[in-house]
């Protein structure tokens, strides 16, 4: 009888230990610095979702610990923190890489350590060609170009001017747009650029304005640059349709540019920005509604597209760990690759060995800024 009691006690202790065990998930995010308007909602989202998950019992009875570092948008810091996450913190996966530059510096660390990495940045190079351990949640810059060109053609626009940031995202999107423009029936007849810290793009926009035949302008960029471009565009009274990238799909962009300056700007965005306009049978609608409500209750403000990227990354990762029934990095990686029909704020995700993004152009919504807010074009 005493032996049975002892065994029962040991079993109970073992169960308690298992329930309190921790699955460590790492993150390196640009909470501060020039990309803070992207990284801050990402970090807040991850913290909120970990707290909610643990309150509900964790993953398969195990609590989750988030090990979060602020890389300030510095690729060198991002690499250092990624190395620390795998070598010192012994995380089973990494979420982060707020910017393309930070992501590209994390990739070799994750690949060498064979730890799954879900990026929150936009450049197509992140997942094309496919890398064994790397996934991402935002639409690619190439997809953004295709969606914008599709809308331009519908409006009878075939000749455009481009102005692009020289940062990692801007340079990558410019390259992708220039590559697919001919097959989309778009001719780029003016091509200007600006630096990440430039405070006035009037000279470049004047060059585009004075170029005969330009029917619209596309700005490939993120951060504060596109807001400056939008203000200067209004000041110059260019008078042509202005398109921005999904890299500025947030209320912060509208506020920084000024709602009057941003009026009429079009860009491809996610369902998150227009959740109340989605059809009732849209599979993303309940996911968006729940996330928006939880974020507003927690932080007293609406979440951004970029917070949505973190939401989806965490959902993909926790779904994979749950299905794998394991916190082994290789088993998690294999499970991420078989994600199927997972509705997120950015799209409905179905991964394959050949596709580490998981959705197509239909996940993008073409948006226009009207009266200082987002409206659906299609």
From TrEMBL:
GO BP terms: amino acid transport
Signal peptide bounds: 1-21
Occurrences of domain Leucine-binding protein (ranges): 22-358
Alphabetized UniProt keyword annotations: Amino-acid transport, Signal, Transport
Keyword Transport tagged: yes
Pfam families on file: Peripla_BP_6
Protein family membership: Belongs to the leucine-binding protein family.
Protein name according to UniProt: ABC transporter substrate-binding protein
């Amino acid at each position: 009888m005493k032996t049975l009691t002892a065994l029962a006690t040991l079993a109970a202790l073992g169960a308690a230990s298992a329930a309190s065990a921790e699955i460590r998930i790492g993150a390196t995010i640009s909470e501060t610095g020039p990309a803070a308007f992207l990284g801050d909602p990402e970090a807040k989202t991850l913290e909120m979702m970990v707290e909610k998950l643990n309150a509900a019992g964790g993953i398969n009875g195990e609590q989750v610990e988030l090990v979060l570092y602020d890389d300030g948008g510095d690729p060198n810091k991002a690499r250092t923190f990624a190395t620390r996450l795998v070598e010192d913190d012994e995380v089973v996966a990494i979420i982060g890489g707020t910017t393309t530059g930070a992501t590209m510096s994390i990739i070799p660390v994750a690949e060498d350590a064979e730890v799954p990495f879900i990026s929150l940045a936009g450049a197509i190079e992140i997942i094309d060609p496919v890398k064994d351990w790397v996934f991402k949640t935002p639409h690619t810059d190439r997809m953004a170009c295709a969606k914008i060109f599709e809308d331009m053609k519908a409006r009878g626009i075939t000749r455009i001017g481009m102005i692009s940031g020289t940062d990692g995202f801007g340079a990558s999107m410019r390259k992708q747009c220039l590559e697919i423009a001919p097959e989309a029936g778009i001719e780029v007849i003016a091509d200007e650029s600006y630096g990440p810290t430039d405070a006035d793009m009037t000279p470049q926009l004047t060059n585009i304005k004075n170029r005969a035949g330009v029917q619209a302008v596309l700005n490939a960029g993120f951060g504060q640059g596109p807001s400056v471009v939008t203000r200067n565009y209004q000041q110059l009274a260019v008078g042509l349709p202005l398109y921005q990238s999904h890299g500025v799909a947030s209320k912060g962009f509208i506020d920084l540019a000024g709602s009057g300056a941003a009026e009429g700007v079009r860009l491809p965005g996610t369902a998150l920005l227009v959740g109340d306009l989605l059809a009732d049978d849209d599979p993303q609608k309940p996911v968006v509604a729940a996330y928006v409500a939880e974020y507003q209750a927690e932080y007293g403000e609406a979440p951004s597209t970029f917070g949505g990227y973190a939401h989806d990354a965490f959902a993909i990762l926790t779904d994979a760990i749950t299905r794998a029934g394991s916190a082994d990095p290789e088993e998690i990686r294999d499970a991420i690759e078989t994600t199927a029909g997972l509705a997120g704020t950015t799209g409905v995700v179905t991964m394959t060995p050949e596709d580490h993004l998981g959705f197509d152009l239909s996940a993008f919504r073409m948006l226009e800024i009207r009266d200082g807010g987002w409206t659906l074009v299609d």
